[in-house]
Structure formats: C-alpha cells, structure tokens
Amino acid sequence: MNSAFDIKRFFPFLRWPRPTLASLKSDAWAGLSVGMVLIPQAVAYATLAGMPAATGLYAALIPSLIGVLWGSSALLAVGPAALSSLLVFGSLSSLAAPASEQWVALAIWLSIYSGAIQFLLGAFRLGRLSNLVSQPVIVGFINAAAIIIMMSQLPTLFGVVDIFSVHPVNMFERVVADPSHMLMTSAFGLGTLALLALSKRFFPSFPSLLFITIFATALSWALGYSAAGGEVVGEIARGLPPLVLPSAISFENHRELWSAGLVLALISFTEAMSSCRVLARKRRERWDENQELIGQGLAKVASGFSGAFPVSGSFSRSALNLYAGATSAWATVFTLICVLICLLFFTDLLYYVPRSVLAALIIMPVFSLFDFGAFKRLFTISRHDGVIAIVTFVVTIAAMPRLHWGVMAGIVLTMVSYLYRHMQPRIIEVSEHADGTLRDRQRFDLPRLANDLLVVRIDAALNFLTGGALDHFVVEQCSRDPHIKRLLLCVGSVNDIDATGVDTLESLQITLKSMGIDLYVSAIKKQVWDVLEDAAWIEGLKQDHVFMTDREAIAALRSA
C-alpha cells in the first residue's frame, strides 16, 4: 500500500479517474475547441517573446503534456501565455537581437532556470513563497504589462516599424508619401481586432479566433499581401520539436538570467495560481500549490529542451476549457492532438498569416488585463497597498524592457511596508466593558478596574519589531500616573514570541519592580507559554500573578 502511495505521489496522473465514453466526448469537444484557439495564439505569443513562430507550437506540445501530467489542476491549460512571453522579451532585450540564435539560446536557458526554480519550490513544499508577489504588486505589474504589450504591437499592427523612434512629423510625411503599406497592414490588423470584438460580443462560444485567422490568411494569399511587401509569418518547419541541449552562453549571461528567472517563476506561477483557484472554485475540487509548482516547473524545463521559451498557465484557455465542458485532464490530450496534426501537416498554411493579424491576436486578450479601478479599490482598503501598486506600475513602465525590476521594486516595498506596519503594533489600555469583555478604555470611556491597576493589551506578536513599542508604552503610562501599583498585561492576542519578546518581558519586569509595580499576565496562548516556560520566565512570576483567562484576571484583581 505504501508503495502505491509513493508511486502516485511521484506520478500524480495515476490518480486520474478512469474515463467514460460520455466524459471522453465532452473532453474531446473541449480539447478541440481549445486547440483551435491555441494554434494561432501560440504563433502570436512566440512573436511577442521575440522567438521564431515555430517555437510557439513547440511550447504548446510537450510542455503542455508535462504540465497536466505532473500538475494538480486537471483543466489548467499550460502553454504560451502573454505575460510570460512579455517577460521573456523584457529579460532578453538587452542581451541579444530578437529571433537570433543567441536570443533563442538565452530563452532556452531562461526557461530551464525558471522551471528549475519552480520545481525546487514545489519539491521543498515552499509554494507559499509565491505569496511574496502580493495583490498590489500583481495589480501594478499586470496593468503596466498590458500597456507595454499593446504599445509593443502597435508598430506591427500599423506597419510602421519605427513609430516610436522617429519624430512624428517625419513619420507622418513618410506615410503620406507612400500610404499603401500602412493602409494595407492596418486593414488586416484593425479588421481582425474589429471582427474579434464583434465575435466576442455576439458569438462568445464560437471558436472565432481560429476562423478569423483562417479568413485573414486566405485573404492574404488571394490578394498577394506578401508579394506587395506585407509582413507574414513565413516558413515554419514541419515536424516534431527538435529535442535539443541548450547552447553554451557566457557566465555573465547566466548571471543576468538568474534574477530574471526568479521573477518569471514567481509571476508566471501567480498567473497560473489565479487560474487554478477559479477552476477549483467552479468545480468544487481541491488543488495542491506545491504539486502545481512541480508541474509548471517541469513544463518550463521541457519547453527549454524543446527549443522553446517559458510557458505558463493560461487563464483564457483554462476558462474556455471549463466553458466548453471539459471534465478531466484528457481534454488537454485532445488539444495536443490538434497541435501535433498542425505541426505534422499544416504548418504551410501558416505561411501567409499577416503579422498584423498576430498583433491583433495579442492585443485583443490584453484588454481584459486592464483594471485601473483596482488601484482605487486598493487605496480605499489600504493606502500602503495603493502606493505599492502605483510604484510597481511606474517602475515597470520606466524600467522597460527590463520588466522584472518593477516586480522586484514591488516586492521590496511590500516587505518594507509590512515591517513598518508591524513596528507600530496596536497597544491600548483596556478596562471591563458592560458585556464583561476587556475593551479600549479611551474609545468606550471606561473607568479603570481599580485606581492602582493599569490593564494593557497588545494586539500583535511580541517580537523584535514590537518589543520596544510595548516597553515604551507601559513605562510611559506608569511614569505618568504615580498611583499605579499593579499592571495586568493581556496577551491573548499574542500568537508568537521570539527571543527579543522574552527579553522585553524580563526587562519590563525588572523596570516595574524598581518602580514598585507588580506585573500580572493573562490569557497566555500555548505556543507562547511553551517559549516562556523554556526561557524560565514563568517561574519568575508568582503563581497568583498568572491567569488563564482575562475574566479570571478581572475577578481576582478587582477584588484585590
């Protein structure tokens, strides 16, 4: 029995339920629907990542299979994704020329590094480290990334390569002198955008992306778009992905890729994690973030050895999987059959796809990433979180193309904000409320339990961040009122204590004793009690100075 458990632990796909004819029919329809969307998307995201078009299909094949076999979410669609592709482009822009051999080699190494990081995080059960990328950082980065993605595709969409690098007057004069190229390219790009928007509005369940791409490709071929100077995808090698070993790169390049790989691993997993949560909520099933990290990591490594770029979980294709009626991971197998058939027999049909159409395929899903209202919500909830989101947004835009600096800035600011907030714990004087509980004395205008008794509560962990604040508050209150002879410290809200916290209590006890004040403690939680007992601090107090509950302390000290 243990052996079987071990096998399923290392090969989670053995837990897949046995398919039935009905479930296979549902999975086949869903898988084919996703596959028809994935093929043009894969080519489009390859161009977004600065990679050859064929690598998008390579990234959609073996990595997708590995991701679903070793992942924990049955319907998560693993493959090329917009954010990951953008991060690839941003990470490599200063190191090589897009689509060059050096660029491809760097992308392969980046895929392996980011995958290895995710795999190790999952293997050592450190999936919660992905929470370092907080919601404000995600909001700031995704909105900035959406703008960057759209701006990066405008030159291709309109057929003006240097749209952002020349003076607008010069560009306008050149376009006016020969408007045919821009008009022809824009017609395909803007026409595709319009058709995608209309189909999403009126035919949301129809795989319009594929049919619009086919229509644009046929029109491109019929009109001689390529012969007239229009940019098309061009030749895509037919056949299976060439399993390759990564080419040698310099140590400086490796060092540049380490930080980029870490950020890509965190961001792409955060993207995949949001999809997993939605799918789990919709299907009322559990998922394992550590197992998903392992699956995502292995998928990235497999993508690297397939000669492709880092993959991730796609929210849009995962949602389509669910919408189309997929019941299990077998849907992904049918999706991969679509990609495989395309690679083996139909890559020639992609030759005439206009690049402006691919730009439209990239831009259209990006509209769903915009959520500027999230900034307002964050400011309403927490000013600190709102500032973190804005800083992440600004730094991401300013650091372009090195986008990972925006995420790093957001993470650092999140940590600083966390430490700052926890260095100012809520420490208040409390007294008995009419309902018998201890409440804020100042807020509810309560009298003291006794004239010589000060009751203090700390609503935070007692550690190196909060110890000094507690000591300062107590000493200041006792010094201000010479009538105080007894102090009750309510620690029921203290869930954790470290060596500095113990030292704070020892120092406070000595200080109060020198002031002629007795120290009492109430409602010590077990985990705190164990630390204080090991430190022999409990023994230093008299037995009648420690109370199990606040109510017991109130009764004893009021009567005294």
UniProtKB/TrEMBL annotation:
Residues 451-557 form the STAS domain. Gene3D superfamilies: STAS domain (3.30.750.24). Keywords: Membrane, Transmembrane, Transmembrane helix. GO terms for cellular component: membrane. It is found in: Membrane. The chain crosses the membrane at residues 60-83, 103-124, 136-161, 181-198, 210-228, 257-280, 322-346, 352-375, 387-420. CDD domains: STAS_SulP_like_sulfate_transporter. PANTHER family: SULFATE TRANSPORTER. This is SulP family sulfate permease. The lineage of its organism: Bacteria, Pseudomonadati, Pseudomonadota, Betaproteobacteria, Burkholderiales.
